[in-house]
Amino acid sequence: MDGHLLELAGRLGQFLSGQGAVIVTAESCTGGWIAQTITEIPGSSAWFDRGFVTYSNLAKVEMLGVNPQTLERYGAVSKETATEMVAGALARSDADIAIAVTGVAGPDGGTPDKPVGTVFIAWTNKGGGLRVAKKQFSGDRHQIRAQTVKIALEGVFQWGGFSNT
């Protein structure tokens, strides 16, 4: 496990504990790596509720309530799908804040519109705040996924996580 990611998850735990908040994850391209990083931290059960690994479109629909028409119209790798994933994770958990990620980790699966390395990361909270970021990462599959985990965790701090911005 990457030491920087573990340090980041530890800081996230301190931040969430200080807020009395709990987080949930919904992951596609990272395959549970965000949840794994979080749960490497002792005591994370106090601030981590659950993680959804929704790699297939069917899992996104069944587990998170993503609208099949959203997937058909915009694709799994889209701002719209990330938005529905993060909302579904929050609604189906006891968390205060949610992170969702969906993307093309490669080496295959890219298109001219969504090349390998295209990732959408969404954050939301019970107060109704929502932020979605589109990222274009470079590197191999492992590097793209690691960068996604890093930005997803850092985004909670950058966004503040609890305001309606």
How are the strands of the biggest sheet laid out side by side? 2-1-3-4-5
Shape: globular
Mean pLDDT value: 94
- Structural class computed from helices and strand pairing: alpha/beta
Unreliable residue runs:
161-165
Number of strands: 5
Explain this structure:
The protein is built from six helices and five strands; from the N terminus they run αβαβαααβββα. The protein has helices spanning 3-19, 33-39, 57-64, 68-74, 79-91, 141-159, and strands spanning 23-27, 48-53, 97-103, 118-125, 130-136. A five-stranded mixed beta sheet has the order 2-1-3-4-5, with helices on both faces. Helix 2 (33-39) links the parallel strand 1 and strand 2. Helix 1 (3-19) packs parallel to helix 6 (141-159). The longest helix has 19 residues, at 141-159. The protein is globular, with a radius of gyration of 15 Å. Residues 161-165 have low confidence and may be disordered.
